[in-house]
Fold this protein.
Amino acid sequence: MTDIVIISLISIGTLFILLAAVGILRMPDLFLRISVTTKAATLGVGMILTGMALHFGETSITTRAVAIILFLLLTAPIGAHLIGRASYFVGVPLWKKSLMDDLKGKYNTKTHELSGEDREGLDNDQENTENASSKSSEH
């Protein structure tokens, strides 16, 4: 019974790593590639290491596997976030079908400061809302 669980964990982990590799090839921009690979590869490696820990059943190996899994869970999202943030600030373009750019207008390329709110965008949104409401009241 334990062998079936071990084989299942390692097989599913391998499948997730395969999906991460396919995601690198299929995703249209850097930001989606980072997202897919971070999530799928972290889960895949975690499952493979869990299967390995169950297979060997020794305390030292299980401790090392758990430490590696925790290290991956803590560092992979942070690393992906930093790579994505640096890529955005350098000017890597978003996918042309992206619906929203939450940082647009909030980053000053000269001072490299990120503002908490987009005053210009808020003012424009308020103007657009006021214009739309005045046009609808005219009809």
User: Anything to note?
Assistant: Strands lie at 107-108, 113-114.
